[in-house]
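REQUEST FORM: STRUCTURE PREDICTION
Request ID: SP-0412
Submitted by: Lab K.M.
Chain count: 1
Length (residues): 78
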Amino acid sequence: MPVRIVIPVIDESGLDAILSEHFGRAPFFAVFDIDEKGTIVDCKTIPNTSEHFGGTGRPPDRILALKPRVLINLWNGS
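STATUS: Completed
RESULT:
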């Protein structure tokens, strides 16, 4: 069973995307599906269409809709 990882990012560069420092205001979410051997089997970038960007829903709800098993977020301690 693949593991889905979601990471808030500021661009659409996939593996090279820059991490977003603000979870809810990340313009995009990088979504990675990893197989049992640790190989990336799928990688896509999804726009953040939450209320912060003129859409609907809160950012956590938008991420939960992607059905992640893991969420990685940058925390700078402030």
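NOTES: The first helix runs from residue 59 to 64.
Reviewed by: T.R.
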